[in-house]
Amino acid sequence: MLLQFPTNVTGWICHAIVTSSLLKAVGIDSFSGTTAAASAAAIKWISKDGIGAVGRLFIGGRFGNLFDDDPKQWRMYADFIGSAGSIFDLATQVYPAYFLPLASLGNLSKAVARGLKDPSFRVIQNHFAISGNLGEVAAKDFMFCNMSLTYHKMWRLFISLFYMIQLILVSEEVWEVSAQLFGLALGILILDTPGLVRLYPVLSLTWLSIRLVHLWLRYQSLSVLQFNTINLKRARILVKSHVLYTSVPGCVDCNKEENILTWEKFMKPRIIFGVPLEDMVGGDTSVFKVKKLIRIYAKEKYILMVNQSAGDFEVFVSFKVCTQKIVCEDMNDKNLAKFQISLQVGATSLSVLRSVWQVYWLHENRESFDNLSDWLSHSLLVMEDRFDDFIQQLKGAGWNTHQLNLKVPKEISIDEVGPLQ
Hints:
Helix 1 packs parallel to helix 3 (71-91) and helix 1 packs across helix 7. The protein is elongated and about 75 Å long. A hairpin with a 7-residue loop joins strand 2 (302-306) and strand 3. By secondary structure, it is mostly helical. The protein has helices spanning 4-25, 38-62, 71-91, 99-128, 134-138, 153-170, 172-191, 194-197, 200-223, 232-245, 251-257, 277-280, 287-296, 349-364, 372-396; strands spanning 270-273, 302-306, 314-319, 326-329, 338-341. It contains 15 helices and 5 strands.
């Protein structure tokens, strides 16, 4: 909260500055006293808002399932996109003839940012709701219980004031509104300083400086958040520590090590989930190769394969999500006979975590085996021996092992019916 307050203050200062550019662009110049036609200004304003609403609709419909996994990352991305949108608003003062396209692009960008911000922020709020009291955290109502104190009235007053101050300090809504009022007041003060706003380069530089401070503060405020749930980024950190040192870091250390800005798909070693079987075996769906791979992972709810054609270490993972069919061709048969396999299992978040553990063991022991099948088989034996200890250490370190934000990909990558002969 201490970091969020100056973050919100700088954000509202920037809002006041770019709003002045928008108003000047439509003809409302507070310094010269001129005004634009009310209807023209209203049409432009409504048009840009309508185009901006498309951004939120797109985000809500397309990316709604991403925010539970990594809310800190998406909250930070929202500020980057919102800052980019403000640049379009700021440019309307220089190009008033292009107000509608510039303001619309600005509103579209900020709407996309809002679409990223709100869901991820609700996840962060839920993180603070220790007993399901999300509404209390989101908008604190100052409700005081009847205290049956028998002490002096002044003592009761002191206790009441103490609880009131405590509620105010933990109320996010109070901090947000206070920051908004303070930020807008400073923004008005800047706009009332002729030397700052009459020269556009000075105004732009002022906005840029404050915006950079705002982004830095946002990063700091998100960095201090400590989640005890396990997403893919934190799972990588925890698994790597256990594979290398047979121990796992606590919530504080792991959250500090977590990189907010890095997109998980660019992290090393590279793990690609939901890969079709043909890609996993290099297009060779021969009976022998597929049977061997299926038997190696008979006890697991996923199939993992190292991509030997990649330059860097890369792993393919396919999950057994439902009853499907695998069609394989015996290349030694002139008639290309086909067979079908049945794997009646369903992968869970724990399956994802197990696959990540195996990936890191393979990555750290990739020079130990010449034969790929032996390498994969041995990694499963080691995981079977050490994975229970990994889970116990997670519980002992305070991690919530009952809420794993590790989603099984929805893509169906294994088609299978009938028993394996």
